[in-house]
Design a protein that fits this description.
Chain lengths: 368, 366
């Protein structure tokens, strides 16, 4: 468990113990207003994807904004359990729930909360139905539509309709609609990705049309994310967009999404300055994270950033003229904030440079 | 955080997944290798706990033998966890520079002997001031940059200057020199020995220079898993900071006396194609380093096609077909970052749960 030195509320941000996740509340509120203005008058609504931070306080803020469905999207049942303990009561779980252990947990959660799970397999539908009926709960089910061959989900035509019908005929289950599960997005070119995603979105919409033509009523079509929310959210037939990165942002999307700026950054401290062109900090890979790409330094945006496990290494082309002292603070914007948030137990919410709140992240590490 | 505590005796097939397993037989083997290597040597193991994050696992090596009853930690908060776990001899081979952290280090020295490495005169002066204020003595070692090109002095002369300064100030006690290096990528044992001696020799030069000024050098802390055998034979080295050997990684398979003991247990949740299985964990649970060069056990003929954020895509060569609900295990390419993402090890022996081991230093970045 993270063990920072806790500083009093009101402390200047530069005095916080590092490395630390810092969330700028002013930026966060501007972001929420940008996203709300897109969704509030549309048919499609936002379902905040909260596994990218694991923080109930932040999830409640996301749900308090206009234009949401009133529930959240999570990757795992364990995350839903953690958020459920903090007053969130409507979940869409993207990970498939197939084992007896997990199905039992799902039914227990469904007593307290509205839970939607995805399926892509008739045997799984039968298992879910049997358990839900025995537990006398109702589980909402969406059929997962694959984005391409050999990936999670079924084809949007007859396979999707057949599975939808079997859900509809199953005790304990309520057929709700369709969902695509989009992962490992390469975002060098967001506009190209958004264009490509029209194909995935269309597959989900095709599934809807096929189901409706077969007399199956469809409530939910859930597709997209931060990278394409304007595209997915404006597509006829789409009812919700499970976007998450928009809230805290990261350098993956920085400068690539209009109106969205990183609200979260990592504050680190200079621990060694052995040479003029090399600054060593206390934030390495275990604290900043670089699973999918390198972080960007605020102070030296052009610098080559190396992260060994325990140290950050700001490598400069030429020795800096700036005076560097041990103890100086250095800010980093991680490449993927979802990776970084999963390394922490707390986020420090800051307004105008002063600590306003410390938020727990109880859903961190909930892979199960 | 997760809190998964399956009952002792639970068969692996009944575990909820994903979870992080430790094969206790493999771990015992790795600890026995180290105990035997250092049984009669002057040089001892000081296990680096950044790879394990658990005082329980560290205490197992101490009980097995070959150690000096102490450990390394990368961070101050990790050192607190080890002291709380009963290990009072701790070396933090890293720089602690801010006053609030130094105050915390000083306080910890009331309960333990927690030493840090230095590469800067101002830092030694601050350590001295805070230690004197609190009425404790903090042990310091001069860090030497031999290869990593990050913290550490770059010359014997600089090392001597810092050692003299530490000797002259109250509240700090000069204890020795430390270097970290990586003799990775040298599968040939002789070549590894030669390279280890060469790199660690840079640290020994600094030790010699300090001693020639009449300053005693009690500790020479150097070497890691790759050079664990070599370091024991290098005159002057008093301790080795091995970390990877305990849980091990596929990429160090050439150190075949050690076995990979940490494995992620997963379940196939979808079979969208004839030879495709989708597993229930992904990059978030692994880290890039663990995912690269990872291998799959438990289902024959399987390779990793793609590691997504929350799922892993496995491809079979057709030897065995995937079934929804089927379990598999992933052996990490490089494990160091992985336990830092989990809250429990599920200790397994002969296919059943033997004990659940918490990972209390997970997330100890401070």
């Amino acid at each position: 468990m993270e063990r920072p030195i806790f500083k009093p509320i009101g402390s200047p941000v530069g005095e916080l113990d590092t490395p630390a996740v810092i969330v700028d509340l002013d930026i966060l509120e501007r972001t929420f207003s940008t996203v709300a203005s897109f969704f509030k008058d549309r048919k499609a609504k936002l379902r905040p994807r909260v596994d990218l931070h694991g923080c109930p306080a932040l999830a409640h803020m996301q749900l308090a904004v206009a234009g949401t469905v009133g529930g959240v999207s999570v990757a795992t049942l364990g995350q839903a359990e953690a958020f459920s303990g903090s007053g969130i009561n409507d979940f869409s779980v993207r990970g498939l729930v197939v084992t007896p252990q997990k199905i039992a947990r799902l039914c227990a959660l469904a007593r307290h909360a509205t839970v939607t799970v995805a399926v892509d397999n008739p045997a799984n539908v039968a298992d879910l139905s049997k358990a839900a009926a025995a537990a006398r709960v109702q589980v909402k089910v969406v059929v997962a539509i694959s984005t391409k061959p050999d990936r999670l989900g079924v084809e949007p035509g007859q396979p999707a309709v057949d599975l939808a019908k079997s859900v509809g005929d199953s005790a304990g289950l309520a057929f709700d609609g369709f969902m695509t599960i989009e992962e490992k997005l390469e975002v060098d070119d967001v506009s190209q990705l958004a264009a490509e995603s029209r194909g995935w979105t269309q597959r989900a919409v095709d599934a809807r049309e096929a189901a409706e033509a077969a007399g199956v009523s469809v409530t939910t079509v859930s597709v997209g994310g931060t990278y394409n929310y304007e595209v997915a959210g404006a597509t006829d037939g789409v009812t919700e967009v499970p976007a998450g990165s928009y809230a805290l942002m990261d350098s993956k999307y920085r400068g690539r999404r209009d109106g969205l700026e990183p609200a979260a950054k990592i504050l680190t401290t200079v621990t060694s300055f052995p040479e003029g062109d090399k600054i060593i900090t206390d934030g390495g890979n275990k604290a900043v994270g670089m699973d999918r790409g390198n972080p960007v330094s605020d102070e030296f945006p052009e610098a080559k950033i190396g992260l060994s496990a325990e140290h950050g290494n700001i490598g400069l082309e030429t020795p800096t003229q700036r005076r560097i002292n041990l103890g100086d603070k250095m800010w980093f914007t991680p490449w993927d904030m979802g990776v970084t948030a999963n390394l922490y137990d707390y986020m420090n919410a800051v307004r105008s440079g002063r600590l306003e709140a410390v938020w727990d992240l109880p859903a961190r590490g909930r892979y199960r | 955080m997760d809190n998964y505590r399956p009952a002792v005796g639970t068969p692996v097939e009944q575990l909820d997944t994903p979870c992080l397993l430790v094969d206790m037989d493999a771990l015992d083997n790795n600890y026995a290798v180290v105990a035997e290597t250092y049984r009669d040597t002057v040089c001892k193991m000081r296990q680096h706990t950044k790879n394990i994050k658990s005082p329980r696992l560290a205490n197992m090596q101490i009980q097995a033998g070959g150690t000096l009853n102490g450990v390394c930690t990368a961070k101050l908060s990790e050192a607190e966890v080890m002291v709380e776990g009963g290990i009072i001899d701790v070396l933090i081979p890293n720089q602690i520079v801010t006053r609030d952290k130094i105050a915390r280090l000083a306080a910890l020295n009331r309960r333990g002997d927690v030493k840090v490495t230095v590469d800067n005169a101002d830092n030694i002066e601050t350590l001295s001031e805070v230690a004197v204020e609190q009425g404790v003595v903090i042990g310091v070692l001069v860090e030497v940059d031999t290869q990593m090109n990050r913290g550490g002095v770059r010359s014997p002369e600089h090392g001597v200057v810092l050692a003299k300064l530490a000797m002259s100030l109250p509240g700090v006690k000069f204890r020795g020199v430390m270097s970290h290096q990586s003799a990775d990528g040298w599968p040939d044992a002789d070549e590894r020995m030669r390279l280890s001696k060469e790199i660690i020799g840079i640290c020994i030069e600094v030790k010699d220079a300090i001693e020639s000024e009449g300053i005693p050098v009690e500790m020479v802390s150097s070497g890691e898993t790759f050079s664990y055998a070599a370091a024991a034979q290098i005159p002057g080295v008093t301790e080795v900071e091995g970390g990877s050997y305990a849980l091990m990684s596929n990429i160090y398979g050439y150190l075949d006396e050690f076995q990979v003991s940490n494995k992620v247990l997963g379940t196939i949740v979808s079979t969208p194609g004839p030879n495709i299985g989708i597993g229930d964990f992904g990059m978030k649970a692994l880290s890039t380093a663990a995912a690269a060069n990872a291998t799959i056990e438990g289902i024959s003929g399987v390779t990793i096609e793609e590691v997504q954020d929350e799922h892993i895509v496995l491809r079979s060569d057709g030897t065995e077909s995937f079934e929804v609900g089927q379990q598999f295990m992933l052996l990490p390419g490089y494990q160091d970052h992985m336990p830092n993402r989990w809250d429990q090890y599920i200790g397994v022996r002969k296919g059943v749960v033997e004990q659940v081991l918490d990972i209390p230093a997970r997330g100890c970045h401070h």
